[in-house]
């Protein structure tokens, strides 16, 4: 209860948030501190739920911003929509505050809180509806998948999902009934999660533990290469459901790599492959020669090593176990969940210490027959292609093009005087402000080039703005030329990897051309502004 019998929602930035200081500045500019209290009362006006939620959402969005979203946001524009992920997290955090209030509320206040809860759920649901996409889902009658589900159930798995074939994404999980926010779609007992402890029980461990600096993840990867072919494995059925090839960026052929030349994705894939090759060469053939009965040479080829790397990159999850330890794991059945930029499940990495189950609760309703999506994390499309082998549908706020800009000012000892963020651009269609001096471009990038001493809207200021936009135009024109032309003519007969490479290049092209369009329209606005100054000075001169 707050003043005058009104209730309040209290939202605050976590003290452990690494972006705490930056978020505090943004909150401060918008009239609040790291903690904000939003008063509400049903007696104020009929629209009170909408008004309360709008007020709370502005601050909740800041609390849930990630680094890139903070870079692209700005203190002097309203704390508007940032991304679907941010919106989903923000609305759910408001919902959990309301739920906490409800647990201790009296009957009158309960009614108001229930109304507010209903309005919050409506907003979350409409977010899901906006991102709803038409995709073909077909029943999966694959016997190995059915065997795995049965094995899971025998071991205690509880699920409200069934496995289906999803157009363009292999297998996926589909809701068997209408699922609401807070419902648990899937529960996996800790006992069937594949994690490092399994290696410790094997002969292999006695050999591997002698290798200097070897990580638990690498041991587990080598274990899985053998276990995949072990007829007596406890996880035999799980391994049988895995695809023969994962088709991630790590398996891109020469044509796809050639198509990507000059892009950051090319660099990312080459670096990742080089790293894996070095790791492989450090272990093999040494392990096979020294311990051929434990590391059978036919199971430890480069191709099989790459398969295992792709398995772990694309299917593993970081899980905090009931003992509090974080482990990289393979989670049978949960491994069927596909990724979305508007996921139903986001918070799932912790085993419930009372029940010993890893639970997958919903942040977004999922109707019967709809695909239930997970968030694999805040990853750019280049990361998702390299390590997962797909380009997600929709606007990915992590798709940025980093810019190599040096901070000009440094003191005598070479240290930068002011900490300059890593500058970048993204598709300017994601920005809400395309007015003069904003142009849909990142404010921090523009500020980097601006001269603080010039007063806004003066002739010199406008001339400097023109210079900045022309500079950006030349940088991005060069980047666009480097990408070459897109050839659509034969796209039907292309290999999966070349297709993916071309789709990535097309996305890069769309981002760059949006930046170029923003620069052009900005230059036009500046030209109009300068013309007004000229005509005014002409008139003044005549007078
Ligand atoms: C954890 S598995 C999910 C289950 C997988 N679809 C299967 O059939 O085994 C991750 C893999 O699923 C695919 N995937 C996940 N989300 C996807 C999406 N939104 N679009 C296309 N493919 C996706 C990618 O191949 C990715 O490497």
TrEMBL record:
<dbReference type="InterPro" id="IPR036464">
    <property type="entry name" value="Rubisco_LSMT_subst-bd_sf"/>
</dbReference>
<feature type="domain" description="SET">
    <location>
        <begin position="159"/>
        <end position="377"/>
    </location>
</feature>
<dbReference type="GO" id="GO:0032259">
    <property type="term" value="P:methylation"/>
</dbReference>
<keyword id="KW-0489">Methyltransferase</keyword>
<keyword id="KW-0949">S-adenosyl-L-methionine</keyword>
<keyword id="KW-0808">Transferase</keyword>
<dbReference type="InterPro" id="IPR046341">
    <property type="entry name" value="SET_dom_sf"/>
</dbReference>
<dbReference type="InterPro" id="IPR001214">
    <property type="entry name" value="SET_dom"/>
</dbReference>
<dbReference type="GO" id="GO:0008168">
    <property type="term" value="F:methyltransferase activity"/>
</dbReference>
<dbReference type="InterPro" id="IPR050600">
    <property type="entry name" value="SETD3_SETD6_MTase"/>
</dbReference>
<protein>
    <recommendedName>
        <fullName>SET domain-containing protein</fullName>
    </recommendedName>
</protein>
